[in-house]
Design a protein that fits this description.
The chain is built from 8 helices and 14 strands. It has an 11-stranded mixed sheet, with helices on both faces. A hairpin with a 2-residue loop joins strand 2 and strand 3. The protein starts with 8 loop residues before the first strand and ends with a strand.
Length: about 280
């Protein structure tokens, strides 16, 4: 997380038993509130393998005690979605029983072990991949093409926003995690039309960024690329393809358009509760 350390007041913790490291807690602090790190999409306490439930609860209780000594008002925890199923990052019953749910994220993901279905319209578009002259490329150099030619400009034009990662940051991450961060771009006549940035963790992949150019939108290039990747990762034997959250700031709390798009790609809804634990009222 060092690449964006300047954005957060770090409050990460290491939990030891004598000299044995039992758990780590990536975290930051803002206005007397500690967050399971806001620079990470998911996360909480990460435990040493083979700890039992009682040991994990004891560690959580010790973290709460320490936060009290630091005059922390509250703790915000965002546990991993259930489909990550990591033995080192299981949710502690202690924290869950001492918290209130303050928000719920809707996360759309394909379960490859289920009978998922892709909408016929999207399949029809995908079937034109070769006949319409589309070409898909995957390599680290495609990150620069995607950031410079599509992502930054389109996010600014459509949402007046910037990517969470700068090009320098995503290239740095890719240099550290070459197999876990991949960039796929789709072209026609040597023009890049759309791209998807993939983060891989174990048997789960997540589309971190996905965007099409103006011409790419008219050609439904992003749909074609998504369907291509859905089949690719299924063939690789993965269990889940996460397409991220559909939550927004609307009155409903989520984007109907994004929800429909991801469900038509075969996703189903998973929920992620965000917890708040009061420390010092």
């Amino acid at each position: 997380m060092e690449y964006h350390q300047d954005r957060f007041d770090d409050f990460s913790l290491l939990i030891f038993d004598n000299n044995k490291l039992l758990a780590v807690f990536p975290a930051n602090m803002s206005n007397d509130v500690v967050y399971s790190h806001q620079g990470l999409t998911y996360g909480g306490l990460i435990f040493k393998r083979d700890l039992d439930t009682n040991q994990k609860d004891e560690i959580c209780a010790e973290v709460i005690h320490y936060l009290k000594t630091q005059k922390v008002k509250s703790l915000i925890v965002k546990p991993l979605p259930e489909f990550y199923n990591s033995k080192t990052e299981e949710v502690s019953n202690f924290w869950q029983s001492h918290s209130n749910v303050i928000k719920q994220h809707l996360i759309l993901a394909i379960d490859y072990n289920s009978d998922f279905k892709i909408h016929k319209t999207k399949l029809k578009r995908f079937n034109k991949l070769k006949s319409n002259g589309f070409i898909i490329k995957e390599n680290p150099e495609e990150l620069r093409v995607f950031w410079n030619e599509i992502l930054v400009n389109r996010l600014n034009d459509k949402h007046n926003a910037k990517p969470v990662h700068s090009l320098t940051e995503i290239e740095y991450l890719n240099s550290k995690f070459k197999q876990e961060i991949r960039q796929y771009n789709i072209y026609r006549d040597d023009e890049v039309l759309a791209g998807i940035t993939i983060f891989k963790k174990g048997d789960v992949v997540k589309s971190q960024y996905g965007m099409a150019s103006t011409i790419g939108e008219k050609l439904n290039a992003l749909d074609i690329l998504f369907v291509y990747l859905i089949y690719l990762f299924q063939d690789e034997g993965l269990n889940y393809f996460s397409m991220g959250t559909v939550n927004d700031n609307s009155e409903r709390g989520y984007s109907e358009g994004m929800l429909k798009q991801k469900q038509e790609l075969g996703c189903r809804i998973f929920t992620q509760d965000i917890w708040k634990i009061d420390i010092n009222d």
